[in-house]
Structures are given as C-alpha cells and as structure tokens.
Amino acid sequence: MSILLEVKNLRKYFKTPKGMLHAVDGVNMQIESGKTLGVVGESGCGKSTLGRLVLHLLDSSDGEVYYQGNNITHVNKKELKELRKNMQMIFQDPFSSLNPRKTVSQIIVEPLQIYKAYPSKKDMIKKVYELMDTVGLAKRLEYSYPHELDGGRRQRIGIARALALNPEFIVCDEPVSALDVSIQAQILNLMQDLQLERKLTYMFISHDLSVVKHVSDNICVMYLGTLVESCASKNLFKNPLHPYTKALLSAIPVPKINIEKKRILLKGEISSPINPKPGCRFAPRCLYAKDICTKKQPKLIEVEENHFVACHCLKENNKESM
Ligand code: SF4
Ligand code: MG
User: Fold this and answer.
1) Residue (of 25, 4, 31, 65) closest to 228 by Cα position
2) pLDDT tens across 259-279, in order?
3) CATH 3.40.50.300 fits domain 3-317
4) Which of 113, 207, 273, 319 places its Cα 20 to 30 Å from the Cα of 187?
5) Contact 289 CB / ligand 1 (< 6 Å)
6) Does the beta carbon of 293 sit less than 6 angstroms from any atom of ligand 1?
7) SS3 164
C-alpha cells in the first residue's frame, strides 16, 4: 500500500466576532494511491475546509500535510504552482465555479495556458478536444456557454478542466450534490472510469453516505471538525461503531421493502464550533453520553485493523459487534 497523501493533526481556526471557530480540529488521515477516500458528515462539519487545506487553497492554523512523503505544509508560490499540476479540485456547484463569460473550450484551455503546457496553439486545441471527448462532451459544444448547458454537462466541463494537467490527486467536493439523481449516476460512473484509466486518487467529500458508499474504498466520518470513525468502506457499512456513524447509516433508505430498519433519530442541539466545550463534540446528541464524555475529548483509536473510532464508551455500546 502506498500513501499518496497524509495529514497529521491538521487544524483550521477562523476568527469570528463571537470567538474562534474550530472548522477543522486535529484531523489525521491517509489516502492510498489510486484509491478513493470518502469524507462524510453533515454540512458545516468542516469537510470542505479540510479539502481546501489539503490543496493549499487555505492556509492551515496548525498540523502538517505530506504528499508522496514530502512535507508540503509550507511551500512557496513556485512550489505550490508545481504541486497544483498534480492536485486539482472538482467543485460542488459547477455553475458558480465556471466563468459565465467563457465558452466551454475557453474554460478547459485555461489551465493549459496558465502552465504553458503546449508550445503550439494547434496542440493545445487538440488537447481540449481530447479532454472534451474524455468526459463525454460533444465537440459541437465548444462554443457554448455554461448557462446553455444542463448541470451534468456543466460538471463534465469542471472535470475536464480538473484533468487538463494530468493530475494524480483530485479533491471532489460534493461533485454530484447539485445534480438530479439520474445524472448523478452518470457523473459518478465517469469519475470511476477516469480513476481506473488514469490511476487517479480521490478525496471524495459528501454529506450523502449512499453516494460515498458507491465510490469509496475507505471512509472518514467527520463531526464538528473532528474525525469520529474511519475504516474500509465495506466495514463501515457492516460494522459501524461510533454512535454518530450508526445514526447516519440508519437514515439511508433501504431499497427492499420487507427489510425493516430502525432509524436512530438524533435529538439535542449540535454544539457550536465556536470556542467548543471540552469533551466529545457529539455528547449533546449522543444517546450513550456519560460523565467523562463532557470532560475529555475522545482520541481516534485503532480498535481493529484499519478501523479507527473516537468514543469513550465503545465497548459498552458495541457488546455484540466487538
Ligand atoms: Fe457518545 Fe461519549 Fe462516545 Fe461521544 S464519547 S460518542 S458522547 S459515548
Ligand atoms: Mg461543503
């Protein structure tokens, strides 16, 4: 197993009038080369911030990021430009991330121009057509503007642009959330085909566990800036151990009508990420919270091979599955 990207104790705090907002608060994770790490959690849990930190679109407050074993936490502009070739992003809302005044081909050619990737204009245009073909955009759309196309095609432009410099690693931030369900499957299949063909590594961010399940090899579950559980995708669905993961899983609809599933409804207020209280962030909503949970923050611990959980009361809550 070769690790392409690793983050250690990564933090991002934002100053707000009410105090320090702990958006990402001590995250540790690894992404295997050629695999997909799903990052799942409710909106506002810090997953997009985490994706941006990894790509240096935001500066971290503390912690480290390693790419191919090299510490890339503090890089200068020139080094960052070099890194960006290998690390790209696909955004949630293709509409707002595409320049409305540019045509499809002008959008896709942009990274090639910035990086002077081709000496001749002819080669550059050839590459644009190649990229359009790769993502399933007909050549006749080259002079179209984003607003003339549907959401699926717009996301295909975003993917083509992300692929232009042949990256190894792509952060996909809710890439299908803005799309109709029927289009979602097409885009997810395209992304999976591209991953195989180009040996891409994905960090796939989503609030939707059923989407993450479909694409991920490993999954991290985030809650209010912290990781609460992380393991192989299959294992997470078979043997979830953290109370929050269990609640998330119970909310996924089951396709077979004769299977009954008890939904765990989360009550209680989500705690504030501003000046967070000591203890487990999930405590106000946790059915199993004990005294210690409000006093000490649980550490992410490996409870079985490659299965990490942050919970003080793991054994009591999972007698049958541990
Ligand atoms: Fe619940 Fe306590 Fe575990 Fe947090 S540490 S998830 S509050 S049991
Ligand atoms: Mg987000």
Assistant:
1) 25
2) 566 788 788 778 889 999 999
3) yes
4) 113
5) yes
6) yes
7) coil
